[in-house]
Amino acid sequence: MLQELHRLTSGSFALLLVLNLACATALAQSKKNRPSKKTDFSQRAALLTEAKTAEPIALPVPVNAIVLPDDWAKSPDAVLSIRLASKRPEHIEVRRVAKGDGRLYLEVRDGNGALTGDAEVRFGSKTLGKVRINEALWLSLKPRIRKLAIEILGAGGSDPMKLSTPTTLVEVRGRQIYLNGEVFLMKGAMARDLNETDADYVQSLGINTLRGFEALADAEKYGFMNISSLNFGSEAPKDSMTAPDQEFEQRIAKSVVWLQQNGAKPVASPATLLLQLGNEKTGAGHLPPGGGAGTVAHRHVSQLLVAVRNAAKTMSPMLPVGYANQDVGFLVPDCMGPLHAQ
Question: Is 221 found in the same domain as 113?
Fold first, then answer.
């Protein structure tokens, strides 16, 4: 069977299938080794709080959102137009936000400060509403895996600013992922440099997600979702996790800059399912989840994850963030989200 699979998939790409049996075995072992309620976490907690860990930033909450027609995607050439009564700021950005209700919220804001004043919003030839902006302009729409074209005009006759934003909605409710309001059962593989024959075969196996930053282009081209692996280049290698605190704090700052420079592409893609912030940074571990005192690597990785999570959520409050690690004794910070709950 494996030889036949290799024959069918060799040559143009490397494929890694995650077998349900292996996952079930690992889950059963994790539950078996799970610490009891009487486990003493005091040593571990003390170690983790020694470091200068940033506070997790709060996520924006939509208010007074202007609603787009539910059939907006049937007008692929229509542009969402925002006409400001005041002068248009030089730097406007659009961020996706989720509320857990199956709708996508777009936050139109001034990247250099608060966006204020009156505005009129139109979609194509239809006026959707007028609003007085306080901090940011909010839009609400039915999500689709595509992009929405936006133009922003200001007083004074300046040329419109033309933007586009993905309209894919990814939510985590409890410990389930929802894609555009529906439960999404992730079936993943690691693949890159696909051709059409490869993609057809992979999809025939039921695979719907490709993992890897380099696989994003293939995911967009052939209709997969993507787990974007953002491992900070050379700024945070595994051996640096045990460096002295002062040296490691510099690593954190450089990793945040790396993420800001390299994370824009997956944030702007309709195919991105989640941002993977690091991989195997603490090395292998054999303790049950949360068991024993934390290590220096545990502490440093916790610091790193909070910092890069804050940076990622500043770029896209909606996109879930993740961390991959075989060290089951390492508990990631709570701000990483419920998918990491032990």
Answer: no
pLDDT at 340: 57
According to the model, what pLDDT value does residue 41 have? 40
Question: Nearest 5 degrees, angle CA 22-CA 24-CA 30?
Answer: 105
Whether residue 110 is found in the same domain as residue 254: no
Same-domain check for residues 261 and 306 = yes
Domain residues for the domain of 42 are 2-58+172-340
Number of domains in the chain: 2
Q: CA 219, CA 265: separation in Å to the nearest integer?
A: 13
- Spans of the chain, pLDDT less than 70: 1-53, 290, 292, 339-342
156 and 36 within one domain: no
Of the chain, the percentage scoring pLDDT greater than 90 comes to 67
* pLDDT score, position 29: 38
- What pTM was estimated for this model as a whole? 0.83
Instruction: Give the pLDDT confidence score for residue 130 in this predicted structure.
Output: 96
336/211 Cα distance (integer angstroms): 19
Give the model's pLDDT for residue 52.
Answer: 56
Task: Phi first, then psi: give them for residue 8, nearest 5 degrees.
Answer: -75, -25
Q: Are residues 186 and 153 in the same domain?
A: no
pLDDT at 342: 42
